[in-house]
Design goal:
The chain is an alpha+beta fold and about 130 residues long. The protein is built from 2 helices and 5 strands; from the N terminus they run H-E-E-E-H-E-E. It has one domain: Trna Endonuclease, Chain: A, domain 1 (3-Layer(aba) Sandwich). It is globular, with a radius of gyration of 15 Å.
Length: about 130
């Protein structure tokens, strides 16, 4: 079972990432898309004929590593399976190009810079998609 503190922190990170994406012209299609118990995609969005699956990680400090360090092979596999299921359920997106992005958010060090956002595009791919 997830720690409630981590769950609320995750929601904060996803809201920051969603706002960031919207301001850059992305259209959010769905948030927290689940594939049974085997995976979840934080944000699914579209831009320029791309269907983009976004993993979001908020870290309060980098003492435990950078947010992007959280993308493990197991996490990639779960995101990939979830993405395949999403396209199966939504065939209207089958003709889109697919991309897997990552948004890492760390807390800022000053009152005026509350968060630092790092958007990495196409962080991994699956040729067989």
């Amino acid at each position: 079972m997830k720690d409630p503190k981590n769950k609320s922190k995750g929601k904060i990170g996803e809201n920051i990432a969603s706002n960031y994406l919207r301001l850059r012209g992305f259209k959010i299609i769905e948030k927290n898309f689940k594939f049974g118990r085997s995976g979840e995609i934080d944000i699914i969005c579209v831009k320029d004929n791309y269907l983009i699956f976004v993993e979001v990680k908020l870290r309060e400090s980098i003492l435990k590593g950078m947010p992007e360090d959280s993308i493990t092979e197991i996490k990639k596999e779960r995101i990939y399976n979830c993405a395949k299921y999403f396209v199966f359920k939504h065939p209207e997106f089958a003709d889109y190009n697919f991309r897997f992005d990552f948004i890492g958010i760390t807390k800022g060090k000053t009152l005026f810079k509350k968060f630092s956002i790092k958007h990495l595009e196409n962080v991994f791919s699956f040729d067989e998609f």
